[in-house]
Amino acid sequence: RSSRATRHFAGIEILVIVVVPIIHRFSLFNMVEHDNLNPFAVGNSIWLYLVNAFAPDLVAAPGYRYARGFSGVLAAGEMLWVPGDAIHSFENFDFKQPTVAIKFWYNSHSVACQGEGIGEADCAARHGMTFPAVGQEAPTLRHYLADGAKVRESVRRANGLG
After folding, report:
1. DSSP labels for 65-118?
2. What is the rounded CA–CA span in Å between residue 61 and residue 45?
């Protein structure tokens, strides 16, 4: 159970998938609400927001009354895409059942090798992925899983585990 909001780096996209029969509530805020959410720096460009969006304390975080955002509920099998620079918070709302949710972070292809002067295909190859040629169909989920298995196997071999 988490009641603290966080924000990640711009360019990192987040996909949250709820996979068991629970209720998961969320809150989302645009970056412009940063100062209204009682921010606390925990690292270089990493922020923890001390306001609990689900039970705000307006004495401890008086700016929260001016914050504008979104909130909602996810049920089993539903997904939510969250932009990487969004301030967000998730919380299990069904306390009688265990919580299982998957949080997947990924870099957009436009920022994975940003500033290195290499193209998308070279960037994909550098990260152990393939990139479709012009006119070639986009890869399927099965293709990405196979690529991921190859990468995991090469990492295991490199570390003497396979």
Report:
1. GG--EEEEEEETT-EEEE-TTSEEEEEE--TTS---EEEEEEE-HHHHTTTS--
2. 21
Tens digit of each residue's pLDDT (9 = 90 or more) over 69-84? 999 888 777 878 887 7
Q: Is 69 left (phi over 0), alpha (psi -120 to 50) or beta?
A: beta
Sequence-separated contacts (24+) of 144-152 with Cβ below 8 Å: none
SS3 state of residue 13? strand
Q: How far, in Å, CA of 36 to CA of 126, rounded?
A: 40
Residue 129: phi and psi, rounded to 5, are -115, 160
**pTM of the predicted model, to two decimals?**
0.59
Using alpha carbons, select from 80, 82, 71, 87 the residue that is nearest to residue 101: 80
Q: Which two tokens stand for residue 158?
A: 């490199």
DSSP 48: E
